[in-house]
Amino acid sequence: MTFVPKTVLFSSNDKMRFLSRQTQTDTISRVEPYPVDVKDGTKAGAEHREHIDTVEDPAEWKKVSLTEDGDVAQRLFASQAHEPIDPAEEARVVRKIDFMILPYLAVCYAFFYIDKTTLSYAAIFGIREDLNIHGQQYSWLSSIFYFGFLIWALPTNFLMQRFPIGKYLGFNIFMWGALLMCQAAASNFTTLAVLRALSGAAEACSDPAFMIITSMWYTRRQQPVRMGLWYTANGFGIALGGLLGYG
């Protein structure tokens, strides 16, 4: 009595799934060896079939999800070894970030607010007579700043997603300062109106950019307090603007 070697049978669908990716469940029909009578060639045993299921390891799914899907921060998080954080060390790092990030945001936000009110200070020093502003032109100079802000608000939010937030914010702050200095050289209503509209467009990224920077450096629990701190710079802007207007 001899044995016939076992044979593995695959269907066409099973072959495609098995060759393309070995992560799905494949059903393999396998014929076990059975004894054959050499004299008359009849089967001495019955044919036996069994199904073998290959189930993917869930850990592999997690690995693929963290390294191939998601954004850069998620891939960086997956590639690093995570250790418990010392609360004292965390407090020192957060305090250092507070002294580095919050003053810049607060000072910029205060001067942004002063810019919104410079026209009222200029009216005290005779801008109406210098530029021959009459009728509703003064009101339009005040409103046109927010028209530029409103028109450029949506495009600037899209651009913040395409460019590095630090460089994009720095460029807008530089342009805002340059346009603000150019307003001192304006000689008529039209020139000043155009400069104020462009200044509003340059300032449109301030609030969303500051919120993004705060969310980059602080945890979700720490963010509300920090946002409230640099937002309160509006009050300092009012006080400082009044002192500048008086002096």
Topology:
Elements: E1 2-3, E2 7-9, H1 12-20, E3 28-31, E4 35-36, E5 49-52, H2 58-67, H3 72-79, H4 87-124, H5 127-131, H6 137-162, H7 165-182, H8 189-203, H9 206-217, H10 223-231, H11 233-246
Antiparallel strand pairs: 1-4, 2-3, 3-5
Helix pairs in contact: 4-9, 4-10, 4-11, 6-8, 7-8, 7-9
Structure description:
It is a single chain. The chain is mainly α. 66% of the residues lie in helices and 6% in strands. The chain has helices at 12-20, 58-67, 72-79, 87-124, 127-131, 137-162, 165-182, 189-203, 206-217, 223-231, 233-246; strands at 2-3, 7-9, 28-31, 35-36, 49-52. It has a 3-stranded antiparallel sheet, with no helix packed on it. Strands 1-4 form a two-stranded antiparallel ribbon. It starts with a strand and ends with a helix.
